[in-house]
Specification:
The protein is of the alpha+beta class. The protein has one domain: Glutaredoxin. The protein is built from 9 helices and 5 strands. The protein has a 5-stranded mixed beta sheet with strand order 1-3-2-4-5, sandwiched between helices. The radius of gyration is 17 Å and the shape is globular. The N and C termini lie far apart (about 35 Å).
């Protein structure tokens, strides 16, 4: 079996595990989806505003923060046609920015609903994809800051093992802890990384403090750029981030309404851009 086939099988297995977990939490998740468009966005946006106003978040580029080499000024991590961070990223194609928190169950639902379509469009060069691992749900991990630790770990993998980024983040969702739990320990995250194909020496460095500072700063940048809770999906038809619009933004009358929790709808929306 080729290395590419092994990676495909690994991602498929991780997705299957995550789907099983989502089904097991179906009632709670569906309630959150229904409430999310009204209550969740306000709560999460309020949380971000509180953090920013308290001055607890440093801007991107702050001293001591270590950003993934391929990350851009928005904190987005680009994944190219071959599934590697920073390599062969499509040009002259719509840009899709996905803001996610690894503690967020609705992000998990978005992932399971749309990952295959997003992967297929990305691999075909039909879209350029930028992932934003952020940390707005730390308060739901009993003081362990799981969201920040997970986002920082994703940053380390993007930086040092860019070919393993997608497999690692898929595995994080497959092993997603419940809200109001302690989250995953650093040791558990390290083992998940190794199992996802991250080299052992890289997996041992996932607790890098500089990358965690970057994740925190990227969260502030996300809020400045209009991110409204998680998941937030921003699409630019021109491929220029500045031209992007957030989907389902109730504060913007020109925001497209896309039910991306129904399979196929997000892909259809992208295809409609022509």
């Amino acid at each position: 079996m080729s290395s590419k086939d092994q990676k495909t099988d690994a991602r498929a297995a991780a997705k299957a595990k995550a789907q099983a977990q989502v089904r097991a939490q179906e009632r709670r998740t569906m309630l959150m989806i229904v409430a999310g468009s009204v209550v969740g966005i306000a709560v999460f946006a309020g949380l971000i505003l509180f953090i920013v106003n308290q001055g607890k978040v440093e801007p991107l580029g702050t001293e001591g923060a270590t950003a993934p080499a391929a990350a851009d000024a928005t904190g987005g991590i680009p994944v190219g046609t071959g599934g590697v961070v920073g390599e062969d990223v499509a040009t002259d194609a719509p840009r899709v920015d996905v803001y996610l928190d690894f503690m967020c169950p609705i992000c998990n639902v978005f992932e399971q609903t749309n990952a295959e379509d997003i992967d297929a469009m990305r691999e075909a060069g039909e879209i350029q994809v930028y992932y934003h691992p952020i940390s707005i749900l730390d308060r739901y991990s009993n003081g362990t800051s799981f969201s920040t630790r997970a986002a920082g770990a994703a940053g380390v993998v993007a930086h040092l093992a860019p070919e393993a980024y997608l497999d690692f983040t898929t595995a994080l969702f497959a092993n997603q802890p419940e809200e109001n739990s302690d989250g995953l320990s650093d040791e558990q995250i390290e083992q998940i990384a190794v199992d996802a194909g991250v080299p052992a020496d890289v997996a041992a460095s996932l607790t890098d403090d500089g990358m965690r500072k970057w994740a925190t700063a990227a969260t502030e940048q996300a809020s400045i750029d209009g991110m409204q809770g998680t998941p937030t999906i921003r699409v630019s038809e021109t491929g220029d981030f500045a031209d992007g619009v957030i989907l389902n933004d109730q504060s913007n009358e020109n925001s497209p309404s896309v039910d991306y929790f129904t399979a196929g709808n997000f892909k259809a929306y992208i295809e409609s851009l022509g």
